[in-house]
């Protein structure tokens, strides 16, 4: 804790909350400024004030924190936090860009209410975002150099301007895959149907609505040379044969004629220069053979089977239970978080590509 930090929180409060020793001074524990940085895998400075960023950028070491920073050889994450005017100040910006261009990872700040009562860009990033950045910084970069396109969420097939056919996909599975691939060093494009989830940082995001739009967006990314396509989206298999330009009026019965949508996986698999393709099979029942048939029929390299009727699996839940099937065998994953499923899928992708 710096002197400034101790004006806000006492070392005792932080020690009690974290159950860790709190270091405050360069001289309390001799050589702490050398021992602490040499033992750490990662250094996180949150909040990082304009003052400490200025010291870091200019090699000033006049307290424990700035001295530790100077002695640290690993990856450092800073979460800037200050008044918006200070954040925009050109001297400060020069200091910040000096750090970022030398490999320091910046997270935030966000726009919003500031401690001084003003509004603007300067709020420290939320804790979950800082934690996500830390996880990313510590992850093995075994997908460096890969460009991965992930699809997520549902599609909507419009009957008229206000009604559509869709499904219960929340996007959670696809977003978790996009974050995992990003953390492992890949360049990631996330193409998503409508979802209420926050856009992951460090990922290029493309929002679409219909299956046709999703196909167009995927093809565009393939033309740019993606190496892997992960289709976690629940693409509507059918859409209305005709879309009415005006709202369909009430009155009597309505018989809907449906047409099949274009199959995105099969279209991409049929390309001369095709990526490694991972599809998902949303099944209602434990029939893994149906998933295997989908893998062969659609030309996938890997398929992730999930029985969407099982409690805690499939649509709009935080967990999933899957079997990852590929040319070399099957990997069963018991009920686990979608983040853990994403990790298992990416682990298998890395194994298959090496
Ligand atoms: O989004 P969540 O709430 O987290 O839910 C996750 C999920 C259940 C949607 C996900 O785990 C999942 O199973 N996604 C695939 C859903 C699906 O469409 O399955 P399918 O068996 O109907 O299709 C097989 C594969 O073909 C899928 O990869 C699908 O994206 C793809 N497909 C389907 C139709 C179509 N027109 N084009 C396609 O490319």
Tags for this entry?
354 residues; eight-stranded mixed β-sheet; binds ligand PMT; three-stranded parallel β-sheet; alpha/beta; 24% strand
Helix-strand sequence: HHHEHHEHHEEEHEEEHEEHEEEHEHEEEH
Can you give the helix content as a percent range?
Answer: 25-40%
Low-confidence spans: none
Count of helix runs = 13
Brief characterization of the structure:
With 354 residues, the protein is an alpha/beta fold. It has 13 helices and 17 strands.
What does this structure look like?
This protein has 354 residues and is of the alpha/beta class. It has 13 helices and 17 strands. The protein has helices at 3-8, 11-18, 32-39, 50-57, 64-71, 84-88, 90-101, 127-138, 172-183, 211-223, 264-269, 288-298, 338-353, and strands spanning 42-48, 75-80, 105-106, 110-113, 119-123, 147-152, 157-158, 164-165, 187-192, 204-207, 228-231, 238-240, 258-260, 276-283, 302-307, 319-326, 329-337. An 8-stranded mixed sheet has the order 10-9-6-11-14-15-16-17, sandwiched between helices. Strands 1-2-3 form a 3-stranded parallel sheet, with helices on both faces. Helix 4 crosses helix 7 and helix 9 (172-183) crosses helix 13 (338-353). It is elongated, with a radius of gyration of 25 Å. The two termini are 45 Å apart. The model has no long low-confidence stretch (mean pLDDT 96). Ligand PMT is lined by residues 153, 169-173, 211, 231-235, 237, 261, 263-265, 279-282, 294, 298, 306, 308, 314-316. The site of ligand PMT has 28 residues, from helix 9, helix 11, strand 14 and helix 12.
């Amino acid at each position: 804790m710096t002197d400034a930090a101790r004006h806000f929180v006492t070392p005792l409060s932080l020690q009690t909350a974290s159950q860790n020793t709190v270091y405050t001074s360069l001289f309390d524990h001799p050589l702490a400024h050398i021992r602490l940085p040499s033992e750490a895998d990662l250094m996180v400075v949150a909040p990082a004030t304009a003052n400490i960023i200025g010291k870091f950028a200019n090699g000033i070491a006049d307290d424990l924190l700035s001295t530790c920073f100077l002695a640290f050889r690993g990856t450092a994450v800073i979460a800037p936090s200050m008044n918006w005017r200070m954040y925009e100040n050109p001297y400060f910006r020069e200091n910040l860009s000096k750090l970022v261009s030398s490999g320091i990872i910046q997270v935030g700040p966000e726009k919003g209410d500031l401690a001084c009562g003003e509004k603007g860009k300067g709020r420290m990033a939320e804790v979950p975002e800082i934690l996500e950045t830390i996880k990313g910084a510590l992850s093995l970069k075994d997908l460096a150099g890969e460009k991965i396109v992930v699809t997520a969420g549902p599609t909507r097939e419009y009957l008229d301007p206000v009604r559509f056919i869709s499904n219960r996909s929340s996007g959670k599975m696809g977003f978790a895959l996009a974050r995992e691939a990003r953390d492992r060093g890949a360049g990631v494009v996330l193409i998503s149907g409508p979802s209420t989830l926050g856009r992951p940082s460090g990922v290029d995001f493309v929002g679409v609505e219909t299956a046709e739009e999703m196909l167009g967006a995927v093809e565009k990314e393939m033309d740019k040379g993606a190496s892997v396509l992960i289709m976690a989206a629940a693409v509507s298999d059918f859409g209305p044969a005709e879309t009415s330009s005006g709202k369909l009026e009430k009155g009597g019965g309505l018989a809907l004629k449906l047409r099949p949508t274009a199959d995105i996986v099969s279209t991409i698999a049929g390309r001369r220069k095709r990526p490694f393709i991972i599809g998902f099979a949303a099944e209602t029942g434990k029939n893994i053979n149906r998933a295997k048939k989908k893998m062969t029929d659609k030309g996938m390299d890997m398929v992730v089977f999930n029985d969407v009727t099982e409690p805690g699996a499939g649509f709009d839940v935080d967990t999933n239970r899957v079997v990852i099937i590929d040319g070399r065998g099957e990997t069963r994953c018991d009920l686990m978080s979608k983040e853990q499923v994403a990790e298992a899928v990416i682990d298998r992708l890395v194994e298959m590509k090496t």
